[in-house]
Specification:
The protein is α+β, with helices and mostly antiparallel strands and about 550 residues long. It folds into three domains: about 210 residues, no CATH class; about 80 residues, Helix Hairpins, CATH 1.10.287; about 150 residues, Heat Shock Protein 90. Helix content is about 55%, strand content about 15%. It is built from twelve helices and 16 strands. The strands form four sheets. The chain has a five-stranded antiparallel beta sheet, sandwiched between helices. It has a five-stranded mixed beta sheet with strand order 11-13-14-16-15, with helices on one face. Strands 1-4-3-2 form a four-stranded antiparallel beta sheet. Helix 10 packs antiparallel against helix 12. The two termini are about 80 Å apart.
C-alpha cells in the first residue's frame, strides 16, 4: 500500500476540512441572509404601503376639512365679486384647491368624489337647506410631492372599483404588470403578492377615497440588498479560503524542507556519523515542534558522541561498586560470624548434659549471648536503614523528645564495666522535636564508635547543654591523630580509621554514614573536631523553646 506524502495529506485535509465546509457554510449563510433580507423587504413594503395610504387619507381628509371651513364662511361674503376674489386668493395662497365653484345639488350627483383629468372633486354644503355646495378639485398624483424623487420603490395608486391607475412614480407598462400579478386576499386590507420572492409587492386599501396603494420592490433594491449581500458573503469566504491555502502552502513548504533535514540527520546517525547536525530553515512558519526535535536531535547526537567517554567512567564506577559489594560481603560475613560463633558456643555449652554449669557461669553465658545478639541486631538495623536513606523513603514519627532520657537509655544499654563515661548534662536542657527510635539509633552509633576507637582507657566524654536556646550534644573519645584525607572520608560508606591489615575493632564501617543521613533528615547539624580527642558535635535546629 502506497504511503501518502505530507503534501498530499495536507491537500486532502484542506479539501475535507476547509473547502467542503466553506462551500457548505457559504450556501447556508447565503440562504439565511437571503431569506432574512427577503422578509425584511416584504415587511418594509407593507409598512411603506400603509404609510402612503395613511398619508393619502390624511391629505384628502385635510383638504376636506379646509373646504368645510371655506364653506362655513362663504355665506358671510357680501357679494358675488367678493366671493370670486375669495376663491382666487384661496387658490393662490394654499395651492391646494383648483376650480373652486358653487353648484346646485342636482348637478353635484355626477361629481361626488369624481375623477376628472387626475383630479379628485370634493364638495361641502353651503346653505342649511342643502341646495348649494362648494366644490373644489385636489391633485391626485401627489406621490412626487409627498416623497423624494430618490425613492427606489415604485408606488402605484389604483381606483379599487375600476383598477384605473391614478398616480405612480413608474411607467404605465410596469403598472399593468403589477395588476396582472395582483392577488388580494378576501377581507384583507393589506398583504404581500408577486411571482418573484426577491421582489415582493405589498398592497394596502384605504376607504376614503376607495383606493388601493401598491408598493413594488424593484430589481435595483434587490441588487442593492440581496445580490450585494450574496456577493460580499461569497467574496469573504473566497478570500478566507485563499488566505488559508496560502498560509498552509507556506507552512507546507517550510515543513517539507525541515522534515527533509530531519531525514538526513537520522540517516547519518544510522550510518554511524555522529558529527552530523541538523540545520533548519527557520522563520515564522517553522513549527516549534520541529525546532524542538532538531535541537533535541543535535543534543542526542552530541550525547551519543560523548557516551563512549562516559562508558569508561561508568566502567570505573562499576568496578568501585563491585569493590563496595565485595567489601560489604566481606565485612558483614566477618562481623556476623564472630557474634554467631559466640552465641552458638555459649548456647551449646549451656545445653550440654554431661557438664554441670553453675549459676554464675549460666548468667555470664546468657549475658554474653544477649550482648552478641544485640550486636547482630544493631548490624542488621544499620544494613536495613541504608537503602531507605539513599532513596529518601525514611518515615519519621516526630514528637517532643527528652534528650536527657534518650542519652541515659542509650548509656544504660551500652554500659560496660571496662568503659568509663564522663557525663555532664545540663538539667534545663530543652526538649527537641525528633523521632525517638532514630535519635537513639544516632546516639548508639556515635557512642559505640567512641567506645571502639577509644585509646588508653580514657573516659568517654558526653556533654549536653543549651547554646542560646539550641540544644547541643558533644561525644568525645581519645584517639590517635587522623589525617586530613581520612577526615574528609570519615562519613562515607565502609570507611574505617584502621585498615584491613591493622584492624583492631569490629564493625562494618557504616555507623558514621548512617549517623550523617539520619541527622540530615532530623535537622541536626553535624560537625567534627579531631585533635587529641575525637569529638562529634550535634546541634538540634528543631527544638521546643
Amino acid at each position: 500500500m502506497r504511503r501518502l506524502k505530507i503534501v498530499e495529506q495536507i491537500i486532502i485535509v484542506l479539501v475535507f476540512a476547509v473547502l467542503i465546509p466553506f462551500i457548505t457554510m457559504g450556501f447556508i449563510i447565503n440562504n439565511v441572509s437571503q431569506q432574512s433580507i427577503r422578509n425584511e423587504l416584504a415587511n418594509n413594503a407593507i409598512l411603506m404601503a400603509r404609510f402612503i395610504g395613511n398619508a393619502v387619507e390624511n391629505y384628502v381628509n385635510f383638504s376636506q376639512s379646509q373646504l368645510n371651513q371655506m364653506a362655513s364662511g362663504f355665506n358671510y361674503i357680501p357679494n358675488t365679486m367678493a366671493k370670486v376674489q375669495y376663491f382666487d386668493e384661496i387658490e393662490a395662497k394654499t395651492r391646494l384647491f383648483k376650480n373652486l365653484d358653487v353648484i346646485e345639488k342636482n348637478k353635484l350627483e355626477k361629481q361626488v368624489h369624481g375623477l376628472e383629468n387626475k383630479y379628485l372633486t370634493l364638495f361641502s354644503q353651503i346653505d342649511k337647506e342643502g341646495k348649494y355646495y362648494l366644490t373644489a378639485q385636489i391633485e391626485i398624483n401627489i406621490i412626487d410631492k409627498l416623497f423624494s424623487n430618490e425613492l427606489l420603490r415604485h408606488i402605484y395608486i389604483f381606483d379599487s372599483k375600476t383598477n384605473n391607475l391614478l398616480a405612480t412614480n413608474a411607467t404605465i407598462e410596469s403598472a399593468q404588470i403589477v395588476l396582472d400579478e395582483l392577488n388580494i386576499k378576501e377581507g384583507s386590507l393589506e398583504g404581500i403578492f408577486g411571482k418573484r420572492k426577491n421582489t415582493p409587492k405589498a398592497y394596502y386599501k384605504i376607504s376614503n377615497p376607495d383606493w388601493l396603494i401598491i408598493v413594488d420592490t424593484t430589481k435595483k433594491i434587490t441588487t442593492k440588498t440581496i445580490t450585494k449581500a450574496r456577493f460580499r458573503i461569497i467574496l469573504a469566504l473566497s478570500l478566507s479560503m485563499l488566505f488559508i491555502f496560502v498560509m498552509v502552502g507556506l507552512y507546507t513548504i517550510y515543513l517539507y524542507i525541515n522534515v527533509k533535514q530531519l531525514f538526513k540527520g537520522i540517516t547519518a546517525i544510522s550510518k554511524g556519523n555522529y558529527d552530523k547536525k541538523i540545520h533548519l530553515l527557520k522563520s515564522v512558519f517553522t513549527p516549534y515542534e520541529l525546532v524542538f526535535l532538531a535541537k533535541e536531535f543535535n543534543y542526542m547526537a552530541n550525547k551519543i558522541k560523548l557516551s563512549y567517554k562516559d562508558l569508561r567512567t561508568k566502567n570505573v564506577e562499576l568496578e568501585k561498586l563491585n569493590e563496595f559489594r565485595e567489601h560489604l560481603v566481606n565485612a558483614t560475613s566477618h562481623e556476623f560470624r564472630t557474634p554467631l560463633t559466640s552465641i552458638i558456643g555459649y548456647t551449646s555449652r549451656l545445653l550440654r548434659r554431661d557438664v554441670v554449669v553453675d549459676d554464675e557461669t549460666k548468667v555470664k553465658s546468657l549475658q554474653t549471648i544477649k550482648q552478641q545478639a544485640q550486636r547482630l541486631s544493631k548490624m542488621v538495623e544499620d544494613l536495613l536503614v541504608i537503602p531507605e536513606l539513599e532513596s529518601y523513603s525514611l518515615k519519621f514519627n516526630i514528637e517532643e523528645v527528652d534528650l536527657i532520657e534518650s542519652i541515659n537509655q542509650v548509656l544504660e544499654c551500652l554500659k560496660n564495666e571496662n568503659i568509663e563515661f564522663d557525663v555532664n548534662i545540663s538539667k534545663d536542657l530543652n526538649y527537641v522535636y525528633a523521632d525517638v527510635y532514630r535519635l537513639e539509633q544516632i546516639l548508639v552509633n556515635l557512642i559505640d564508635n567512641a567506645i571502639k576507637y577509644n585509646i588508653d582507657n580514657a573516659p568517654i566524654k558526653i556533654e549536653a547543654f543549651n547554646q542560646g536556646n539550641k540544644p547541643v550534644l558533644k561525644i568525645s573519645n581519645k584517639c590517635e591523630k587522623i589525617s586530613q584525607e581520612m577526615k574528609d572520608r570519615l562519613f562515607d560508606k565502609f570507611t574505617r580509621v584502621d585498615s584491613d591489615l591493622t584492624r583492631t575493632t569490629r564493625g562494618t564501617g557504616l555507623g558514621l554514614y548512617i549517623v550523617k543521613g539520619l541527622a540530615a533528615a532530623l535537622k541536626i547539624d553535624l560537625s567534627l573536631d579531631c585533635d587529641e580527642y575525637f569529638t562529634i558535635v550535634l546541634e538540634f535546629d528543631d527544638y521546643v523553646e
